[in-house]
Design brief:
Blueprint: H1 12-25, H2 30-34, H3 38-45, H4 52-69
């Protein structure tokens, strides 16, 4: 993955998760991108249990983007 970007409207935690994901995706293979988990987000960003939904939203968007791209 040479470049990753996002467009998100929502609370700061959703923006933080999307931003963190984009930073981590650059330079990764598709397989490594698919290996990201909500736990990775929780540990990296110190998410509270009530904020876990934001990581799941980003992971869902990532999977949809990879599928649309044909990966």
């Amino acid at each position: 993955i040479a470049q990753a970007a996002f467009a998100v409207f929502g609370p700061p935690v959703a923006i933080a998760c999307a931003d963190w994901a984009c930073e981590r995706l650059q330079g990764r293979t598709i397989e490594r991108a698919r290996s990201l988990t909500s736990r990775d987000f929780e540990q990296a960003l110190g998410l509270a249990p009530a904020e876990r939904y934001a990581a799941l939203l980003v992971l869902d968007a990532l999977e949809a983007a990879l599928t649309d791209w044909g990966a």
